[in-house]
Q: What sequence folds into this?
């Protein structure tokens, strides 16, 4: 028996020795390299987040970027301080908490408990939940100044939007997902997520059991590929005009919804786009509506649709402005429709457009053009499809056109639905001599490392539903909606620029028995206008749903406030020459070069030429002049003379145009609010000018003139 056991043990000994010799010789166990396994066990690998691309406006103003934040960590294991002269872990939880907790808005006892619980569990380090995350650089520096042993920081990134709710639905929202990666949720952040995100990098190094890097760590670094930068067509200045105006209307009228778009009709570039209600992407809170209504909320547009009925009639050769018809009521198979007033009697078709007659539009579409041909025109204006704008979530409206009554109501914007961006796309053909442009908001994509443009959007003609001559005729007629005695759009008249446009007062479905809502406020009030009329540089659409109107107020008042404020200010900002001033018999004068002259001499010279001279500062020498030297200006025009000691002047009574001259001359950033003449400014007179300063000027009209405007009754006007 003992011999058998001796043999068995001998065999086992030889097998084990052979196994050890094999492992020693090959360095492998079950096909796994021990050296590689050991390297892996003592190697730490971390991903390096790529910086998400920055979103800019057309002029390089930052709209969204990754901002560094910090997460505070407390090392609580005393092993981390082995063989070190100074402790590198938390040695006194109570003292640490007393100093640190106030900076994190925590209770001292709460922080002590987190540290003590971590020690009891044998943890290496602990964190302090949401209160210890997303710390600013300022807070980090305050904590570092305390020189608390064991308190460390981990840098992280959050997506930050420096202008708050500014164009929130266009820029969109990016947040950290379940993998702690910032990714797009809405808007441009979602549309361009792949290009904005970039690719993560990686770093690996060898460490000891306490996670301390070895002297020879064999460090390997793969740099991240940061995301590309995206430039939008939005103009920060024009968007600010729009945001300010919409905020004022929201505060005063509390409408259910508001939407507005400002576009360059010659290119299709969206210069501003706004919605209410909105949200601040830095502090979301409760969001009442996540949709971008300008592209994703089809609705019955009302009488702005008559623009395209008119254009179709002219294009079809059936428009005669002097033809007459009986207004009031019109009946077809399936029902009848009414004008918003029924006491006009027999009127011309031109007057019908000016008065926004439903009957006139219906007779043009159903009797003169014909239903089939009118549908062809609607399709040519692309009302049967999405606009193609480069934003996610676009939804097309629907042409409701099965029965005669639907064919009639479509002519004045009832039944058939569209989105604001569909209306604007179609209207580019009117403003742009027949050429219909695809709307877009992404200007270009730029590599952040090389500044090379890797993608650029070019203006795209997507159709020519009407000719240039027809477009001109439509603009001429739409101008009379603003200027004629019968026009519903008189309140939309600008001070310095001619306007062609059309009002809208659309009924809202949802009443009892499938009818429309009733009541003076239960409408979507809107306006689509372009200016200057002969060669439109800007086109704008505004719609306001169910505003809370005061006594004797009508729906056009909040709409016109937004339109006039934004359009007038934007056209001046773009330095578009006014076309409303009668300058035919007035000779212009060239601004002379008075730089480096004494202020008194320059002022005298400019005054003799008929200019209204305003000194900027108290210096004795002229360093600049605006309008610029060589520019032709009108007599009595304000000319600004910049002195060598520039200070902010009193701007009371200045026009928006004068204030923008000041901005151009001094380089000072200026925001304007309202229309008319300056009444308040945020920086006091005689304050030294700083080129990076920021000035806000508020304007108001010299007086308010009550104008006759449309007042809807039972049906859409």
A:
């Amino acid at each position: 028996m003992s011999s058998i056991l001796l043999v068995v043990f001998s065999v086992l000994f030889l097998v084990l020795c052979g196994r050890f010799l094999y492992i020693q010789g090959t360095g492998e166990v079950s096909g796994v390299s021990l050296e590689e396994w050991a390297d892996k066990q003592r190697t730490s690998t971390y991903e390096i987040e790529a910086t998400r691309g920055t979103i800019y406006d057309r002029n390089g103003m930052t709209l969204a970027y990754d901002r560094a934040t910090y997460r505070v960590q407390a090392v609580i294991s005393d092993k981390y301080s082995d063989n070190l002269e100074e402790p590198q872990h938390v040695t006194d939880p109570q003292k640490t908490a007393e100093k640190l907790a106030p900076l994190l808005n925590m209770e001292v006892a709460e922080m002590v408990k987190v540290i003590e619980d971590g020690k009891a569990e044998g943890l290496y380090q602990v964190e302090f939940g949401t209160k210890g995350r997303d710390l600013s650089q300022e807070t980090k520096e305050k904590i570092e100044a305390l020189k608390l042993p064991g308190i460390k920081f981990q840098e992280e990134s959050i997506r930050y939007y420096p202008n708050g709710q500014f164009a929130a639905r266009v820029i969109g929202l990016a947040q950290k997902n379940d993998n702690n990666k910032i990714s797009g949720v809405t808007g441009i952040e979602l549309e361009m997520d792949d290009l904005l995100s970039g690719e993560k990098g990686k770093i690996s190094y060898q460490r000891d059991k306490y996670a301390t890097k070895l002297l020879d760590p064999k460090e390997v670094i793969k740099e991240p590929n940061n995301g590309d930068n995206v430039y939008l067509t939005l103009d920060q200045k024009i968007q600010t005009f729009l945001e300010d105006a919409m905020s004022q209307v929201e505060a005063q009228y509390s409408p259910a919804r508001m939407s507005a778009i400002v576009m360059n009709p010659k290119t299709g570039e969206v210069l501003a786009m706004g919605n209410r209600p909105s949200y601040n992407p830095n502090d979301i809170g409760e969001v009442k509506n996540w949709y971008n209504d300008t592209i994703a909320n089809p609705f019955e547009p009302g009488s702005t649709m008559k623009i395209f009925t008119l254009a179709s009639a002219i294009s079809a050769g059936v428009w005669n402005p002097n033809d007459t018809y009986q207004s009031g009521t019109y009946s077809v198979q399936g029902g009848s429709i009414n004008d918003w007033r029924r006491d006009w009697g027999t009127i011309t078709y031109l007057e019908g457009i000016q008065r926004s007659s439903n009957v006139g539009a219906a007779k043009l579409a159903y009797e003169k053009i014909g239903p089939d041909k009118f549908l062809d025109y609607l399709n040519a204006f692309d009302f049967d499809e999405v606009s193609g704008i480069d934003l996610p979530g676009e939804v097309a409206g629907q042409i409701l056109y099965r029965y005669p009554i639907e064919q009639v109501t479509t002519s004045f914007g009832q039944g058939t639905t569209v989105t604001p961006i569909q209306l604007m796309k179609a209207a580019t053909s009117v403003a742009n001599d027949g050429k219909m442009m695809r709307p877009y908001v992404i200007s270009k994509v730029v590599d952040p490392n090389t500044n090379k443009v890797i993608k650029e959007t070019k203006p795209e003609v997507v159709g020519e539903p009407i000719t240039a001559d027809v477009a001109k005729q439509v603009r001429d007629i739409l101008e009379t909606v603003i200027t004629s005695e019968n026009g519903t759009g008189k309140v939309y008249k600008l001070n310095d620029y001619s306007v062609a446009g059309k009002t809208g007062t659309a009924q809202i479905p949802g009443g009892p028995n499938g009818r429309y809502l009733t009541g003076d406020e239960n409408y979507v009030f809107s306006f689509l206008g372009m200016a200057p009329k002969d060669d439109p540089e800007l086109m704008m659409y505004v719609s306001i749903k169910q505003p809370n109107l005061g006594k004797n107020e009508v729906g056009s008042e909040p709409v016109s406030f937004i339109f006039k404020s934004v359009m007038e200010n934007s056209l001046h900002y773009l330095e578009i020459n006014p076309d409303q001033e009668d300058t035919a018999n007035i000779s212009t004068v060239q601004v002379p070069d008075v730089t480096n002259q004494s202020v008194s001499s320059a002022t005298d010279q400019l005054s003799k030429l008929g200019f209204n001279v305003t000194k900027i500062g108290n210096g004795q020498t002229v360093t600049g002049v605006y309008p610029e030297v060589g520019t032709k200006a009108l007599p009595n025009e304000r000319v600004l003379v910049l002195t060598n000691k520039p200070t902010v002047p009193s701007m009371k009574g200045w026009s928006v145009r004068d204030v923008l001259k000041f901005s151009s001359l001094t380089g000072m950033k200026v925001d304007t609010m309202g229309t008319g003449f300056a009444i308040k400014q945020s920086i006091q007179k005689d304050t030294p000018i700083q080129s990076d300063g920021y000035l806000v000027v508020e304007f108001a009209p010299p007086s308010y003139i009550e104008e006759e405007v449309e007042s809807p009754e039972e049906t859409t006007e």
In short: The first strand starts at residue 28 and ends at 29.
